[in-house]
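queue> pop job 88
queue> type: inverse folding (structure -> sequence)
queue> payload:
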C-alpha cells in the first residue's frame, strides 16, 4: 500500500511539471509574437484617434482600408500614393458606408485631410461637414445640444490622413 502511494505521487508531480512547462512555453510564444508585431509596425506611421462609439463602423473603416483591388493594392496604399479617392476605393466606400450606415446617420463622409491645408472635397462624399448645423469641432449642434461625431483618422504620411466622419441622426430638435 505504501509503495502504490509513492508511485501515484510521482505521477502527479510529473503531470504538474508537464503543465508548468507547457504554460511557460505558451507565454514565451505569445511574447515572441507580440515583440515581432511591434517591430513590424514600429516603422509604420499608422496612428489612430477615435472619438466615437460605433465599433462596427470602425471595423468597417479599417476593413475598407485593407480591401485590395484587382491588382492587389489595398486602399491604404492607394491613398498614400494618390491625392484623393479613386474610382475603386471611392465607390467601394459609398457602397459600404452609405449602404450600411446611411439610415443610422444623418451624414457620412470619408476623405483626405491635408495637414496644414485642410480637408479636400471629393466626388463621392462631397465636402467634409463643417459650420452651421455641424458645429466647429468634433460634435454636431442640434436643438437638443451637441452630439459627438463618430470620427476615425488614419495617418497616411506626415502630410495627410484619411478620415471617416459619421454624424448621428438626432430626433427631437
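queue> result:
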Amino acid at each position: 500500500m505504501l509503495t502504490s502511494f509513492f508511485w501515484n505521487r510521482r505521477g502527479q508531480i510529473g503531470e504538474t511539471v508537464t503543465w508548468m512547462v507547457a504554460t511557460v512555453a505558451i507565454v514565451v510564444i505569445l511574447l515572441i509574437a507580440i515583440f515581432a508585431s511591434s517591430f513590424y509596425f514600429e516603422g509604420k506611421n499608422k496612428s489612430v484617434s477615435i472619438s466615437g462609439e460605433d465599433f462596427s463602423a470602425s471595423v468597417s473603416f479599417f476593413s475598407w482600408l485593407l480591401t485590395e483591388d484587382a491588382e492587389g493594392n489595398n486602399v491604404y496604399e492607394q491613398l498614400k500614393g494618390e491625392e484623393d479617392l479613386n474610382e475603386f476605393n471611392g465607390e467601394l466606400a459609398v457602397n459600404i458606408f452609405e449602404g450600411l450606415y446611411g439610415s443610422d446617420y444623418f451624414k457620412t463622409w470619408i476623405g483626405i485631410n491635408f495637414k496644414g491645408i485642410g480637408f479636400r472635397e471629393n466626388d463621392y462624399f462631397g465636402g467634409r461637414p463643417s459650420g452651421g448645423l455641424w458645429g466647429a469641432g468634433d460634435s454636431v449642434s442640434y436643438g437638443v445640444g451637441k452630439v459627438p461625431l463618430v470620427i476615425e483618422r488614419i495617418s497616411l504620411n506626415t502630410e495627410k490622413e484619411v478620415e471617416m466622419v459619421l454624424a448621428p441622426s438626432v430626433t427631437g430638435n
